[in-house]
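User: quick one, fold this
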Amino acid sequence: MKRPDSSRSVLCFTVLCAAFLCAIALPAFAQQNEQPKFIADALVVQANGSYEAQPDLATLTFDISSQEKDLTQAYAKATQSMQQIVAVAEKNGLTKEEISTGVLTLTPYAEGNKKPKTYLVQGEIVLKVHDFRTIGTILNDSVENGLANFRSLTYSLENPEDAKSRAVADAMHNAVERAKAALAQNGQKAGAIRYANLDIGQIMGIVQYNAAQLGSFNETDGVVSSDNAGVARPRVTYVPPPVQPGKITVSATVQCAFQIL
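Assistant:
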């Protein structure tokens, strides 16, 4: 019987060990190089940047509800309320693209196994307003006679990506200037960027108001009207919200490794 060659066995064992060590080392090497801590002949600089902008978009959200014993009548009143708010929005210069009407949902109410006694139809409508001067009029005309319930008003940026790009550009500009100042002390210059890491902060300054935050209603001189449920209540007027709530700020942080010339 022929014995196995011992040198061949040792060689196979060595190859297996090497392969195993490589399998362990490669992920660790890749993980270490995701964010290199040191780059030869390079200057690593970190700088912050920001961009401030006035909000250019106001989002108004209304809740619509109608509760009736008759299903058809409940749907008809909810649909009518939604159509009237759309008419108010168009009267104040909003386009169809700036008006979003949600789907009406139905909830029947009954006792035990009996047939539904009442039907509740609910929905929402969202308005995108660019002319902030019309917000007060839209609020008053929309909630008048109980057409809808005001839910929220949000001031924001229509194109936040543009603001983010400007904040990044400011951070990069500051990083370049900082690198120039640091290398000038030794008569050196900053060359090409060999590594860069970017972090964009949260957008600060977006303001949201609800009905309570906008203040209580101002009642008129005893004028009374009925809402969709047939309940008589005084006609009220919304306190206009601030036209300009303040600037919105976007921040960015950049870390760059510049080649030293």
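User: anything notable?
Assistant: The CA atoms of residues 157 and 190 lie 36 Å apart.
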